[in-house]
Amino acid sequence: MSASEEFLWGVSTSAFQIEGAFTAAGRRPSVWDAFPAFEGQDASVACDHYHRYREDVGLMRSLGVNAYRFSVSWPRVLAGDLVFYDRLVDELLESGIAPVVTLYHWDTPLEVEEPGGWLHRDTAFRFADYAARVADRLADRVALWIPINEPAMVTLLGYATGQHAPGQALLFDALPTAHHLNLAHGLAVQALRSAGARAVGTANNHTPVWPADPADQPAAQAYSELHNWLYADAQLAGRYPDALADRLPIVDGDLAITSAPLDFYGVNYYNPTRVRRPSEGNPLPFELVEIDEYPKTGFGWPVVPSGLSEMISLLRDRFVDLPPVYVTESGCSYPHSLDDTERIEYLDGHIEEALKADVRGYFVWSLMDNFEWDSGYSQRFGLVHVDYETQQRTPRASYEWYRDRIRR
Q1: Is residue 342 annotated as part of the catalytic site, yes or no?
Q2: What are the angstrom distances between the C-alpha of 408 and each of 64, 68, 372, 401, 405?
Q3: GO MF terms on file (predicted)?
Q4: E-state strands within 295-336
Q5: Counting Cβ atoms within 10 Å, is residue 13 exposed (0-12), middle (13-18) or buried (19+)?
């Protein structure tokens, strides 16, 4: 049975958040290296996974997962270092763990961003060249491929609000990045298939959108179009929501590229979103509202396991030919305690909802604590605790729980 047919019990990470080993010769700068640091913290060392990957694969082997989703660093590949990923993939295969590769997890090379980044159409073609280079090296050994992780977050947080790198606050003028990310996705799918990739999909961040009251339904629809359907529609149906299509720089033939057939569909889920109609002076067609009737994670996100199956149902209703679904990210941040009962409760509820929704796999975010973007090291998502001063890894109670759940 291939990795694309059996249920995948996995963990996820991303290159920038864990690898470290930032030197000019080994990895060129990314947009995150130039982004204002949280409390002076940076990811130049992070979890030092670059040097400790064998130890980390050993943790996965002991955990009992049969898949590991990680990302390749575009800036590292530009510096000429694909050897690290060769070694990592071989180490995983020797441990009986299927490599699941994401080509882009938000770390745009600074040299690609400076001419315009995802605001420029040319970036999609530069990304396709990068995808071909990686696939030429790894396609024979990788089980599943994901070109771009959560393009919605790149557009919304990176270019629309400025919360994430590259820190642009363009609001609706950020919309061209959505199309260029979708185009890059489609071009990468083509490049991967040309290189012999076995199974190619995507990993989109999804959130059920709840109106605060019935009169707020138009606001909920507007937010869902921006967060959910701007990407899923283009990738699965070759179209855009009517309200947004005229704002996008579409060239004839683009939508046939964005909707290249996929072997699987990845859902990244953390929480639902509640919205209401905007107050006077708000340039957006919605406002976010706190969801207070559920417990919250250390990040302040509401814990709603049923939102995962709700979202998958929405996807299946909208796309009758939806490919097999994997939950490619789902997890939570809590304080550093090793006896993390709340994380166990979170995972238990979300895994049960995923199984009820008949998905093909579940990837916990994250294997280990890591550098959490604009929050530095203040948030801890890991099944494994990391002491950043000593780099000591210590499995939490949730690690033991997940190992037992996989065995069952």
Answers
A1: no
A2: 11, 19, 31, 11, 5
A3: beta-glucosidase activity
A4: 325-330
A5: buried
**Domains of the chain from N-terminus onward:** 8-407 (3.20.20.80)
Are 330 and 363 spatial neighbours (Cβ–Cβ below 8 Å)?
yes
| CA trace torsion 106, 37, 342, 325 (10° rounding) | 0
**Do 103 and 47 contact (CB within 8 A), yes or no?**
no
215: buried, middle or exposed (CB in 10 Å: 19+, 13-18, 0-12)?
exposed
C-alpha 27: how far from chain center: 21
Q: What is the pLDDT of residues 157-175, one digit of tens each?
A: 999 999 999 999 999 999 9
How far CA 167 is from CA of 70, 113, 157, 162, 174, in Å, comes to 24, 11, 8, 4, 11
Asked whether the beta carbons of 326 and 265 are under 8 A apart, the reply is yes
- 233 vs 403: CA distance, rounded Å: 36
Which residue in the list 19, 150, 310, 372 is annotated as catalytic? 150
SS3 348: helix
Active-site entry in 113, 310, 329, 342:
329
CB burial of 244-262 (b: ≥16 within 10 Å; e: otherwise) equals beeebebeeebbebbbbeb
pTM over 0.85: yes
- Report whether pLDDT(4) > 70: no
Question: CA of 116: how far to CAs of 109, 119, 121, 176, 247, in Å?
Answer: 11, 5, 9, 11, 18
Taking only the tens place, the pLDDT of each residue in 110-137 is 999 999 999 999 999 999 999 999 999 9
The answer to whether residue 113 is catalytic is no
Tell me the average pLDDT of the chain: 97
